[in-house]
Design a protein that fits this description.
By secondary structure, the chain is α/β, with parallel strands linked by helices. Helices cover 39% and strands 11% of the residues.
């Protein structure tokens, strides 16, 4: 069967012969970002409002200011930090709402194909352990990954070169022979600055939303668009 025509925005196919390590983001790359957006924009403000006897709009305004203060820094991704700020048990809320966690279309097909190809498949996430553990348990995807690397292990987010340097020191890999996919442009800039050999942006990290227009990096709608693997 002939391969389906490639999107004109997908750029050149990956040079799979040059790839030994496949490094993947979790939220918005493998998992549907709609869960996280609902969690932080709807559930947390509602619970915060109830706990503080605020209106939901007051809670949303207060939390938005807090979010902006630490955007793209390690606290932004830390359940312990947000438990302290809100007085809520964020890890418990993750467990309570776990049934909403979903996998993006075609992501598991891609994971399976990478594993079957014999390449090293590692998860590289900014998520705190309290978050990535419940998500991988709920989706059953943990067995695909040889390593699960969290930015909290290095005290720096993936946006920072400190993360990438710490990551490579603890889990040695040849960056020129690595592929990395993520939906976050600041994170992709960090990977590019570190010298990751091949990079793709995910243009459709959330089900039900239109494709994002991305010009800074070669983009694909979803991981499945990178199949077949040679």
């Amino acid at each position: 069967m002939l391969n389906p025509p490639r999107s004109p925005k997908a750029g050149k196919p990956l040079a799979w012969s040059s790839i030994e390590w496949v490094l993947l983001d979790m939220d918005g790359t493998v998992l549907d970002l709609s869960y996280d957006n609902w969690f932080w924009r709807t559930l947390v403000p509602a619970r915060y409002a109830a706990a503080r006897r605020l209106s939901v709009s007051e809670a949303e305004a207060a939390l938005s200011t807090r979010f902006a203060e630490v955007a793209h820094t390690l606290p932004w991704y830390c359940t312990d930090y947000w438990s302290g700020i809100t007085g809520l048990d964020i890890a418990a809320l993750k467990r309570e709402s776990r049934e909403r966690i979903g996998v993006l279309e075609g992501a598991e097909d891609f994971l399976s194909a990478v594993r079957d190809s014999g390449r090293k498949l590692w998860l590289a996430t900014n998520a705190h352990r309290d978050s990535w553990q419940v998500k991988l348990e709920q989706t059953g995807l943990a067995h695909y990954f040889g390593e699960i690397i969290s930015s909290h292990d290095f005290g720096a987010p993936k946006e920072s070169q400190d993360f990438w340097n710490g990551f490579q020191t603890r889990h040695p890999f040849v960056k020129e022979r690595a592929f990395f996919a993520d939906d976050s442009l600041p994170v992709l800039r960090g990977a590019q600055g570190f010298g990751i050999g091949q990079i793709r942006a995910i243009a459709m990290p959330e089900k039900g939303l239109p494709r994002r227009e991305i010009s800074e990096f070669v983009a694909v709608d979803r991981l499945a668009d990178l199949l077949p693997i040679h």
